[in-house]
Amino acid sequence: MTWRAICRExxxxxxxxxxxxxxxxxxxxxxxxxxxxxxALTTRQLLADATTYxxxxxxxxxxxxxxxxxxPACNALATIPGVRASGAVRTTRENLTTAVLPSxxxxxxxxxxxxxxxxxxxxxxxxxxSADALDAVKRNVGDELSxxxxxxxxxxxxxxxxxxxxSPGFGYAALLPAAPIEPFDQCWVDVWPVSPQTxxxxxxxxxxxSSAQAENPTVSQxxxxxxxxxxxxxxxxxxITRFVPALAAGLALVLGFVAVRRRRVELSSSMHAGAxxxxxxxxxxxxxxxxVLPALLLTPFVLHLLGSGLPTGDTxxxxxxxxxxxxxxACSAYLGICAGLLSTREKQLFAYFKDR
Length: 356
Hints:
Elements: H1 3-15, H2 21-55, E1 60-69, H3 71-76, E2 83-96, E3 106-111, H4 113-118, E4 127-130, H5 131-136, E5 144-146, E6 152-159, E7 174-177, E8 184-191, H6 198-203, E9 218-221, H7 232-237, H8 244-261, H9 264-272, H10 277-306, H11 312-342, H12 349-355
Parallel strand pairs: 3-7, 4-6
Antiparallel strand pairs: 1-8, 1-9, 2-3, 2-8, 4-7, 5-6
Helix pairs in contact: 1-10, 2-8, 2-10, 2-11, 8-11, 9-12, 10-11
């Protein structure tokens, strides 16, 4: 058979419903796309859990040593791969007493610039208020805040510090950027993915003190409500849908095999008439494309919808992982087609005819 004759025969089989391409396309799309979607939803939930873990500050580790934290060393931790931000903070005896709310002074903390990055805000001058403090004084970022003693200060930033299990003290507070000349009390570092090496990193920011009264530095997690660690790779590897690609491949293999075996009389008859197995294989390849291609084209659109709202990198990872399931199913369908064709014998034509 010539290439043109093979294409013409495949087209005739598809349009005359000999291939049953419509039914096969629906069945293939239902289980391959359905399984890929299930896996995508599970993966999306893992991504959401990781985002929540970071959002509540569980990825932030702190070390506390009163008056012994080296501010520049703490800030320098941010240059290490995997460290999202780091900075030092110290308590003061001062309060920010505002003219509009003198009965509720705001505790003041002096910080390095890096600490403001840990809190998700910025500013090199003025004052940074927590969201609760900003709401209490009825001001916005950029406004001048009048103090009871007649002075004023510019509000250069704001941060959110909800009561969701984080260490208390910063929910109603003011942060003042300070030059890292004097030592600080705490160093905070935000590391993602969570690394067991963080404790060692934090210990490098503590200035030595050989006095007998020196207390040992205390390393802790800012928020322990979601556990002390988040191993995203392990959770992904052990997710309940991890066998979905294999399941989709197995179902597609059976579907392809059945799609050919139900036409064993027609195929063995063609072999008896002189058609080569290679020509029949090429014809079946084209026919299979007719019921595999719709699912392959539809999958990116469905998965793109599932990934809406996620960061670009997470959406791409979600799309790649789930597309792999459908692509593997398509390849398995072709293997099933090959297995079905190879198991079809010309000399069994009359036996097939009798069993029909």
